[in-house]
TrEMBL record:
Pfam families: CN_hydrolase. It is an enzyme of class 3 (hydrolase). Belongs to the carbon-nitrogen hydrolase superfamily. NIT1/NIT2 family. This is Deaminated glutathione amidase. InterPro entries: C-N_Hydrolase, C-N_Hydrolase_sf, Nit1/2_C-N_Hydrolase, UPF0012_CS. GO terms for molecular function: deaminated glutathione amidase activity. Residues 10-261 form the CN hydrolase domain. The keyword Flavoprotein does not apply. The keyword Hydrolase applies. It comes from Python bivittatus. PROSITE patterns: CN_HYDROLASE, UPF0012. Its EC number is 3.5.1.128.
Amino acid sequence: MSSVARGPKPLIAVCQMTSTSDREHNWASCSQLVREATRRDACIVFLPEAFDFIGSNTEETLSLAEPLEGDYLQRYVSLARECGVWLSLGGFHERGKDWESTQRIYNCHLLLDPKGSVVAAYRKIHLFDVELEGKVSLKESAFTNPGSEIMPPVLTPAGKVGLAICYDLRFPEMSLALAQAGAEILTYPSAFTVTTGAAHWEVLLRARAVETQCYVVAAAQTGKHHERRTSFGHSMVVDPWGSIVAQCQEGPGLCFAEIDLAYLHRLRQEMPVFSHRQPRLFGQAAAQWGLSSP
């Protein structure tokens, strides 16, 4: 399959899966979904956060993590080459260069081209440290280092793709920065909890699409990973008007969407919100009022 998009509206594929600590089972699931997507002529396949595994505890998570040069990721390099497809690997447990000194990992979103080259690597900036009494208790920072930079959007056959991960969805400043840098597609590979997903998943994805006038692509984990963790699912593609154009329901699977960049640019021309923004005034107000976090 060629890396060049077919026709004026390239097709993308969004994967939904249930990762466990069994990396071989996860690989079998992912590779099957990718091959199915390429048979449908998708030019980019998006995999969710933690596509490689979800450990049952911190110790297992740290023990299963690998560097980017490790054998596990090389399987995906080979898969991209074999299928001739772009791969968005939504959240790899990476042992970084500082592993020996920190004993913590990075949550790394990788974008591979059809030659298997890593064209972008974004390390999650906003870590999920949340305690909802009786519902959700997760502290990602206990074993994960935060990333330190936003990556510029990458030109792909479907458009310019901006990389983010899961909890980044709650921070509109990041999506606005990516859009101003030229992004046409924003990606939020995720493993949303059932509690937060039922309340906020759809509304946040649609809000990010509307305010940036971008397509929003969100591959998601679904179902029960182990006794203490279950994910919401509902992988989704939202268009720049805020309409849901593709969605998975429960269980592993795929959804597909065409990316209509002509439509996107027409919307931006008809409603030029970025030329109407007044960021200078926002900064002035914050300085004048001495604003701090609530």
